[in-house]
Give the backbone structure.
Amino acid sequence: MNLLGIDFEEWYHPELVKPYIQNKKKDLKITKGIDKILDWLNEKDTYATFFVVGELIEKEPILLDKIISGGHEIAFHTMYHTKLDEKGFEEKFENELEQFDKLTSGKSKGFRAPTFSLNKETSWAINHLIKKKYLYDSSIVPAKTKMYGFSDAKMYPYNISSENILKEDNTSDLIEFPLMVTKILGKKIPAGGGFFLRFLPLRTIMNSISTYQKIDIPSTFYIHSWELVPELMPSLSLPIVNKFVTYHNLKNALPKMSKLLEKFEFTSFDKYLK
């Protein structure tokens, strides 16, 4: 069984977009696609974990009801899609956890850091999650990229602690679910969703999932809400690299993910843990 997380965020949340839209009105667009996303999951007979940016539930409380009534899981993606390493955020993180807890009536037991920003300097977040009795985190990518990841991180789920986020700690109650990776020419690269879902050949991703299954490791996958409803994602003027990463092959993200759901079994994190 494999794990599907949907990073549910608005068009203005991605890190490669934020600096270039300061003067634009932050109106809700992607959120309007929730029914299409839920219908798609129902059609594929698949449950998912929605890592939701909390402010979206504040603005549209019906989001929570729709996701939960569909049998899916709500998890935390910070209140405003803030990277953990943003200056001063450590002092705000606990309050945001409390705020999200109230918004969701304590339903959230999982976390994903925006832009996979859990690292050795932001490991303090682990202690806050344990204190709030969270069950798991899914913020580590076992491959080094320009923006995130660790080449020496574990590829399988393990108990994580703030002492050393890359080392298994069986005294910890928090499970880390690292994102799926693949190897190309001996180098590990991310393969568990997002830009890499759109960029890599589908066969490469399928082979990676099959490799994980052979050694009984769940493939942890993610996809952004705006990748599932590309027609609602506005065309923004961005620097060439940012634009490529944000928009490359965007219209094919949903069809590619659909083919993966048809070939392999996926479920939400909470159902996997039961």
Q: What stands out?
A: The chain has one domain: 2-273.
